[in-house]
Amino acid sequence: MLMVEKKNTKMRITKLIRIVLVLMIGSCFQFNEVVAADNRGEIRGVFFENEEPCSLQINIHNAITGLYFGKVVTDSNGIFTISNLPFGKYYLITHPVDVGVRMPLQWKTVDLEINEAKPKFKVRYVDGFAVKIFYPQDGENVDLEKVNDQNPLNFSWKPYCSDANYEIEIYSTDTTQYFNSGRINTAKYSFNGIFQDGSRFKRRLYRWQLKVYSEDTEWIGIGKPQDLVIGDLGIINNYEGDYIRLDFPKWYESTIDTLDLIQLLDTCYLLEKELAAGQFPSLGPLPGEKQVLLYDPSITFAYSGNPIHFGKRHITENNFPLFLTFHEIGHNFQFGGLPGFASLMGDSYYNPNPIFFGFSEGLATLASLYITEKIDKNILKPLVKDMFEAENKSMRTKFISALEFYENHQPDRNHITPDIIDGILIRLGDRYGWDIFPVFFRIFLENEINDQIYQLAGDDEVKRITIFITAFSAVAREDLREQFRKYDFPVDDQYFQVILPLVKQSLQDK
Question: Domain 133-231 belongs to what architecture?
């Protein structure tokens, strides 16, 4: 392998200035001074973008379970601090602060451990978005049948700003064909089209991905997957159902047929409507419109709306992100078909209060859980039934584990996450029956009684949280205040008593 080209003097000086700046900023962190109280510690660091401090969301996950633990946003100097963490191993993942922002290179740390000997962990900085893909361009048509030793497929990208190693992964979207370059130290790679099982390119969609291992830091950069398109596979077709329309590429057509996807999604849409107090015929997130699902190769994530955009990471051959779909449609019901939901959330999807954010995301995911519980398994193809059962088992394990972890580590409302909310919802559904949830959602309908409840709450966050607890108590026919207090939820007892008769009236059969 060729050695990384030596940096010129100006670049060395710039790098030295950045390092000095980080050391100056880091000097005020005062790490490893004392043993953290109550077996808790913190993780701190600084993040750069093209040599400048940047504002970035940092998500925290438990490294043993993979459970989402919370998030922070870097300040104007790029500094982030994650405090009051129970001792253990964690990893961090970067995310854009604003919804819809494209992120060409996401960063993830190796496992970071805080313990009694090291309760405060300083993450060494990384200069985040320095890598740009030159070739092949995302979605560019490539004649893969002609790729061989004499005519290899050449990948290239802008080198990382400091010394680094790279890794290229090339794979079919169903992952049956896979190639890994191993660590290389140049910003280019040539591939002769032979995968690790000895097979060659076929007429199908492939993707490739770049990883960047920068020196002297715990971060690993993971590039946005790039499509390698063959011929007309990039053509977008419309697939119509009664309630759902798919705008998906032609290469995905066989998967749509294999899963009987249009009929399945129509059935699941009606179950979502049932969940969202849908015994009211006019209720829907998009009155008079079909819910459109769009394959959007410009992103890797997914977001709600009409259409719902699905990034390429979620769309692969012989598979469909069923539960992510139900989650995003759930958001559309929340903010498009249930006017009271926005009122209780404070008219802000990204409410900084972790409990409200947990309700927004957790109740959307409830749609996935509810459909799995209520759908007639006899109508499902064996492949789809297996997908449902495997995903339901995975979700239940994940959410209950998150709740148990939270319960066993001194519950703190500042650490509430959507996963914990979903763990609570699973317990409620299992104990009181899953039919409680469509009744619970009536609290979000627009009517005089609910308007009165919301007006009494005003902008008081504790009162608005108490509305959720009162509604759950009403449908469970049991006072759940003490149970929610164990989760460190604030409750306004006086307000609870005032609105309980109104909530019961709002939730009664229509």
Answer: Sandwich (2.60)
